[in-house]
Design goal:
205 residues, alpha/beta, Rossmann fold, 8 helices, 6 strands, binds flavin mononucleotide
Length: 205
């Protein structure tokens, strides 16, 4: 699989620097390294991404290109996603959903949905990969707290040939240091990193 990098990519999706999901993302990356792998944390808020115009140009274009493709950094993020042997999304819950910056990027993947629908070989030929998620919520309760984020990630990633495993869901992590103060949560994030590296090895072999 020469087109794949050897790094597990950990996408950190919070708008808050140094918060719970940033800390969890670093812990996931530590888990990958603990298992002998390589990991890189990609901070989504550091990329400038314009909102999808819903112009449907990608549906008409032969190669499903986006009219905004050269105007921002969405494609840089997609290139990372396409080249990773496995990925982990670490995200807070905002109003029962993914944060808007991350969702803005996900909406821009409509061109990949179109390419899959049209059966474009460059996309369908990608290796099957596994994706993982660690979702962090401030509230301790809420039966369906993680459903929105989980479903969005699942149907986003499937367009890239990535199957999302059942996410690690952390509740009651609201103030900045709440994740760092919970050794059990840290253990779950480390284990997720180890699992992501095991999945990556299956693709890289
Ligand atoms: C705009 C916004 C919306 C939020 N909505 C929810 C929510 O619906 N449910 C919840 O449990 N926590 C909610 N929270 C709390 C965050 O999930 C929580 O503070 C989390 O630790 C933030 O992660 P971070 O430290 O990585 O930024 C919200 C926070 C913000 C800023």
């Amino acid at each position: 699989m020469s087109d794949l990098s050897a790094e597990v990519l950990v996408f950190a999706c919070s708008h808050r620097s140094g918060g719970n999901s940033d800390a969890a993302a670093e812990m996931v990356a530590a888990g990958v390294r603990q298992a002998g792998g390589a990991a890189r944390v990609v901070v989504v808020r550091d990329y400038s991404v314009l909102a999808c115009l819903a112009c449907r140009s990608c549906a008409k274009d032969e190669l499903s290109r986006c009219v905004l493709g050269a105007k921002d950094q969405a494609e840089e993020l997609f290139a990372l996603l396409l080249s990773a042997p496995s990925v982990v999304f670490v995200s807070p819950i905002y109003f029962y959903a993914l944060p808007s910056l991350c969702k803005t990027w996900i909406d821009r993947s409509q061109r990949f949905w179109e390419a899959r629908r049209k059966g474009e070989a460059w996309l369908l030929g990608l290796p099957e990969r596994q994706g993982f998620a660690c979702l962090v919520a401030g509230q301790p309760l809420g039966q369906r707290l993680f459903d929105g984020a989980r479903l969005t990630l699942k149907y986003f990633l499937v367009n890239f040939g990535i199957t999302l495993a059942e996410p690690v869901c952390l509740r009651g992590k609201d103030a900045r240091g709440d994740f760092a103060a919970d050794p059990e949560a840290a253990g779950q994030a480390l284990a997720l990193g180890r699992e992501a590296w095991a999945a990556a090895q299956g693709v890289l072999k």
